[in-house]
Amino acid sequence: MTGQTPPGECPQCWQHAHDRNAHRHLRPREDCPQCVDHMVNGHPNLVPKTSRWW
Prior knowledge:
mainly alpha, elongated
């Protein structure tokens, strides 16, 4: 994975979208259990956004 997760993004989703190794262990057309869990249960660990007001 390259760099840090941007503000407002989920670290797991960001890694799985930008790191080819995240899904390397899956067979063709196999769903990633971690990604499916996120789609069903949401994103519990978003990186906080920085406020422009302060």
